[in-house]
Amino acid sequence: MTIDDRALDYVTGALSPQERDTVARDRLSDRQLDTAIRDWETKLAPLADTRESPPAPKGLFDRIAQGVAREREAMAGKTVSPFDEAEWRVLSPGVETRQLWSAQTFMYRCEPGATLPSHVHTDTENLIVISGDCVIGGRALRTGDWYSAPPGTEDLDVRTTAGCVLLVQYTA
User: Fold this and answer.
1) Do the beta carbons of residue 6 and residue 24 sit within 8 Å?
2) For 1, which of 30, 54, 73, 165 is 20 to 30 Å away at the CA?
3) What are phi and psi of 6, to 5 degrees?
4) Mode of pairing for the β-strands spanning 146-149 and 105-110
5) Which pLDDT tens digit goes with each residue over 9-37?
6) DSSP strand pairing (124-136 vs 139-142)
7) Phi, psi of 154, rounded to the nearest 5 degrees
């Protein structure tokens, strides 16, 4: 099945719940799949609802306004940065990064087959695989795995087969 076929099946609801979850997870680290899904959503949007909408239930606007007010109160002073709306910076071919809450905390998005540049750790590197797979020095890491490398050590071979999203924090 091609990327375009997977995207179309995802957008049209032709996948089982498990397949849909898999595609939703895969699109986080596969920019081509994510782009194909967005393209199909754009192409099919005019077909989404061509019939006249029924009248809104009584009190709907008030319930929506109350929900928005509750959210504003709950989120006051807090920050949310949606994954798909973030500003990503290209680190190397197939690898993008974004800084999170500090100058030492980053998220990496790696496309399938991507390789991270070799590097020597000047600080302790703590890495958690958020989704996908990551191979470091021949050791396969999966979703939820944690890896820590002390200062002075070197990562020569960091790659992904299926693509991944990594959370990395550096500490002195």
Assistant:
1) no
2) 165
3) -60, -45
4) unpaired
5) 999 989 998 899 999 989 988 989 999 99
6) antiparallel
7) -125, 140
Cα distances from 14 to residues 31, 119, 137, in angstroms, run 21, 43, 39
pLDDT tens digits, residue range 35-73?
999 999 989 888 776 667 788 889 998 999 999 999 999
Structure tokens at 16: 């089982």
Amino acid, res. 141: L
Query: Could you tell me the end-to-end alpha-carbon distance of the chain, in angstroms, rounded to an integer?
Result: 46
- The residue ranges of DSSP E strands in the chain, in sequence order, are 89-92, 95-99, 105-110, 115-116, 119-120, 124-136, 139-142, 146-149, 154-155, 158-159, 164-171
